[in-house]
Design goal:
14 helices, Methyltransferase, Methionine Synthase (B12-binding Domains), Chain A, domain 1, 47% helix, 18% strand, Rossmann fold, binds flavin mononucleotide, elongated, Alpha-Beta Plaits, alpha/beta, five-stranded parallel beta sheet, 352 residues, 3 domains
Length: 352
């Protein structure tokens, strides 16, 4: 640390500094990861902790630690040719650390719809080339254009599951990321998802054998109480009705309203959906209550409960966290998985 005095005054204090700088060359993901991995090792060895933020060619870093260790690291950083225009923003002593658990926490803000994201999607799957267009059309409320695209994909042989997994779900997540990056309002996002959902009716599922087998089953597709995004719920309705299930939908305002609907319809399965665009991280406890309420309406345990949304797609939560029988990581294939569970539950109750 520049100009610090080792001595009794600061013996139990941590040095803390923050600077910003410009990358000499924008680092690639792997260069940035390598820099951070090496920095973590050294920071750990001298008791330094902190965070590094990289965005759009700029670094911002806060480091804290025992003055001696911090001085050594800071001296190296200032000499590093990977960045320039280093500007010290603050330098002080503190009694406690801000980042006590982090040798170096890396934040890398994603640029809105970064070109590399579209490129990655394009390379991953042939349908990936359409994701960017789907996002644009959804935000532009071009429902006709989207419907035409989905119909064209169906007539050229793309199965609905594939279209949902490789095109619609990635588009919904990219839209959620745009909202997180403040590139659109929640209103834009909700409207865009609504457009996607309406156009999604042109996605086709065909599975004749399955259709005959599952004709006798029924499902209630519900948005989680209070959830305003219903893309998943709507797309599932097409999947299940195409396969001949009896399908009801619900947009309940409370757990009680959902329980009443389950009680009235006595479906074989209920699916409770959170947003496919936004993670809804804080909703796990609330959803657990909803699932519990739903089960109480059919105490013989025969109701199959599935849950879904981005929270589950990205494995931030699982079925066990909320007491469900199944959490869907993708909308694709959900009907088959629920069919298996319902068939099993039916066999169990027939055996009793
Ligand atoms: C933006 C930026 C942040 C860095 N942060 C750290 C850090 O927190 N800890 C660290 O040991 N090295 C960090 N480094 C790497 C150091 O500059 C240096 O390369 C490394 O500590 C090896 O030091 P030496 O060349 O003096 O042996 C960073 C480099 C850059 C460009």
């Amino acid at each position: 640390m520049q100009g610090h005095q080792e001595g009794a005054d600061h013996a139990d204090l941590f040095g803390c500094l923050t600077y910003q700088s410009l990358a000499s060359e924008p680092p690639s993901d792997s260069e940035l990861n390598a820099l951070v991995a090496q920095a973590r090792l050294r920071n750990q060895s001298v008791g330094v902790t902190g965070m590094l933020l990289y965005e759009d060619g700029r670094f911002l870093q806060t480091l804290e630690g025992p003055p001696l260790g911090l001085s050594a690291v800071w001296a190296s950083i200032q000499q590093d040719e990977r960045h320039q225009n280093i500007e010290l923003l603050s330098e002080h002593y503190a009694h406690a650390r801000l980042f006590s658990d982090w040798d170096l926490l890396l934040y890398r803000k994603r640029e809105h719809a970064p070109r590399s994201l579209w490129e990655r999607l394009r390379r991953r799957h042939p349908l990936g080339q359409y994701v960017q267009r789907v996002v644009r059309d959804a935000f532009d409320a071009n429902e006709a254009g989207l419907g035409e695209l989905f119909a064209r994909l169906a007539s050229s042989g793309w199965h609905g599951d594939e279209v949902v997994r490789q095109l619609i779900e990635p588009a919904a997540r990219a839209m959620g990321d745009a909202w997180l990056a403040d590139d659109c309002t929640e209103f834009d996002l909700t409207l865009g998802l609504g457009i996607l959902q309406m156009a999604g009716h042109a996605v086709r599922y065909s599975d004749d054998i399955e259709q005959l087998r599952s004709k006798k089953y029924s499902i209630l597709l519900a948005a989680a109480p209070g959830e305003t995004h219903i893309l998943g719920t709507t797309l599932l309705a097409d999947q299940f009705s195409d396969a001949g299930w009896s399908v009801e939908m619900a947009y309940p305002s409370s757990d009680e309203a959902l329980a009443n609907q389950i009680d009235a319809q006595k479906p074989d399965a209920v699916d409770i959906g959170l947003s496919d665009a936004i993670t809804r991280q804080g909703r796990i406890a609330r959803l657990r209550e909803t699932v519990k309420h739903s089960r109480m309406t059919m105490p013989d345990q025969s109701l199959v409960v599935s849950v879904g949304g981005r929270l589950f797609a990205e494995a931030s939560a699982t079925a066990e966290h909320v007491g469900a029988d199944l959490s869907r990581q993708t909308l694709a294939g959900t009907r088959l998985r629920i069919t298996e569970l319902v068939a099993y539950a039916r066999r169990m109750s027939d055996d009793k």
